[in-house]
Amino acid sequence: MSYTGWILLTASLVGLSCGLVGVFLILRRMAMMADAISHTVLLGIVTAFLITRELSGGHMLIGAIIAGSLTAVLVQWFHARGVQQEAAIGVVFTTLFAIGVILIATQVGNAHLDVKHALMGEITFVPWNVIELPGIGEIPEATFILLLVLSVVLIVILAFYKEWKITSFDPGLAASIGIPVVFMHYLFMSLVSVTTVAAFDAVGAIMVVAMLITPAASAYLWTDRLSVMLVLSSSFGVVSAVVGYYIAVWLDTSISGSMAFATGIVFLISFLCSPKHGLLARYVKPVTMSDS
């Protein structure tokens, strides 16, 4: 596969995974949790580096997952004790991210690990960091990890589809019929953490947040059916990745930033043109009724 092909495939995998997970974030009114986790994983990455002094390896993934899970646990802990969820997310997010930034500034030194890299990612380097797979050959490590994560996301969503649907729309009903709501919440937060961590190094925090929230918000405007929303959201993620790449080539600018910008374009089109919730539909319907 060509250099451009690997970048597009990697970004599309991010769009697929984040688009699927993002639907449930939107339905559960937890969109800002995506922003929180995508930033607080920085603390886990920095901590793993300080322990091992190596910038690559499974320890970085483990550290980031622990940090993401810690974010979810702390937010839930504060919320259970009377703090509003938005406020809990804001406090935990800013505190853990600030600790990560301070550690980078004071402890990391000359290593290639900085806040800019964390925010914008290094998707242009993805095709060069390859691993050898038996029977397949060389494949970028980030692409392979994202393929595994997408598989996990699909398996978990399909295996617990009914539970996700009920707990997202009516947690009270879910608890009354015996569905373990707390377990499902933490399972979902773990899924968000794993998805965020897998995409974090390749595309950076900004694109992770954009891909988790905006395609799902766009899909929400087009349909009220969960299955259709999942398909639309993941499709919008892929479209944003491809369109964003060619915008970046055209303008000679950041690829991740352009892909995040493309998600905004998709949302704007959805906001204007969706048949049920679109801005244009609100003005067209009354006219049609009066004419009839």
Question: How many alpha or pi helices?
Answer: 12
Evaluate the radius of gyration.
20 Å
CATH homologous superfamily, by name? ABC transporter involved in vitamin B12 uptake, BtuC
Beta-strand proportion: under 5%
Level of helix content? over 70%
Structural class: mainly alpha
Uncertain residue ranges: 288-292
Widest sheet: strand ordering: 1-2
Sequence of secondary-structure elements = HHHHHEEHHHHHHH
Report the span from N to C terminus: 56 Å
Q: How many strand segments?
A: 2
The 3D shape can be described as globular
Number of domains: 1
- Overall average pLDDT: 84
Under CATH, the topology is which? ABC transporter involved in vitamin B12 uptake, BtuC
CATH class: Mainly Alpha
CATH architecture: Orthogonal Bundle
Main sheet overview: 2 strands, antiparallel
Subcellular location: Cell membrane
Main location: membrane
GO biological process, one term: transmembrane transport
Keywords: Cell membrane, Membrane, Transmembrane, Transmembrane helix, Transport
Q: How would you sum up this structure, described in words?
A:
- With 292 residues, this protein is mainly alpha-helical.
- The protein has one domain (3-291): ABC transporter involved in vitamin B12 uptake, BtuC (Orthogonal Bundle).
- It is 80% helix and 3% strand.
- The protein has 12 helices and 2 strands; from the N terminus they run αααααββααααααα.
- The protein has helices spanning 3-27, 31-52, 58-80, 85-108, 115-120, 141-159, 161-169, 171-176, 181-222, 226-251, 255-273, 279-291, and strands spanning 130-133, 137-140.
- It has a two-stranded antiparallel ribbon.
- The termini are far apart.
- Its main location: membrane.
- This is Metal ABC transporter permease.
- It holds the Pfam family ABC-3.
- Belongs to the ABC-3 integral membrane protein family.
- Keywords: Cell membrane, Membrane, Transmembrane, Transmembrane helix, Transport.
